[in-house]
Amino acid sequence: MIRYFVGRNLGHLSRCVANLNRFQKMSNQKVKIYAFEHSHQWLRSNLPGCKVRNFSTQKIQKQKKLLLDSNLILHDWRKEVEILKKERGKKGPIIGGIYHSDLFVSGKDSYWTAKFKKEIHAISQKTTDVFFHMNLTPPKRIPKLSTLYLPVPIISREISMLPQNVKKKLGIPIDEPFILVHMGGGVGPYRYKFINEWYEKIKKLKTPYRIVVIRPFGEKKEKFPKGIIQTSLFENGRDLVHAAELVISKPGMGIMIDCISTGTPLLSLPADTKERKVKNMMLQDLVGCDVCVASSKFTAKDLSHCIYDILDQTPYIRQAFQSIPQNGAQVVAECMKLLSQHRIKELPDLYPQLRTMTPFGY
Predict the structure, then answer these.
(1) For residue 6, what are the β-bridge partners?
(2) Which pTM value belongs to this model?
């Protein structure tokens, strides 16, 4: 049994689906997913062959003996797994953790973003034996960590619906372009803090493009002007992104990956957390300018001008996006298959083989 712990937000959940879809094509091992309740239905519809269960720190503590009987434990950045690493001993399963971020502090960093990068170092060492670090480009250097470090390309899902079918589902003519507004799938404390402020600007936006707004998990319909389409989360959000001319979104790695992998221009909104600030910095570095990140001072009119500026640069943005390797799900799935056949004491001998599985080998 492989046990996979996944976070609240749609980016984490989508990576889970991408990894396990690939893994199920190469292995018949059973997988049990531990996730927050709001995402269970969505996960089951995307991964019908996997069991989905709730988890919490208390449940992990009570069930640690059962969990440590796994063939492999994988998590998409859950601090709760620290309990299992502490209690495991020398004969238990290998623990792998997946995350994304620039890890290195530079002169561009504020105290805010530098603090976040240091937190990633600390969490990786407390919760993983193998740190699958998702990168846009090969890392220029290797971080000093007590855990084994494995850089991997971005993890994206396969397209499952053609753009014309997406538009048909939305009720849009096949030849009509649209702009997608996505405020994330996060709930609770991770909900984008400026969501209502930007919804008000979207309502006043003057553009010939159709606007489609995705409702986050559990959100009710907003009161938008006639002509703005609201839709619930698709089973595969990458299909929606692929069909759009441009995406306006809160900062996040999940939406950035969907845009990179489909070549869809992205306008990222101002950050409300130190993590999202780092994501905006990564996007600016990739595109090479700040046109892709909205200012907090933007009016609806400014937003309209920015949309046209980005659309004018679509060929350049697509070229930048297409330079990014995208086979991270295949790499993680192959590593899962190997690691699930071994125990923690064997990991040092496996590390050289793991390094050959990623195009970012060093």
Answers:
(1) 76
(2) 0.94
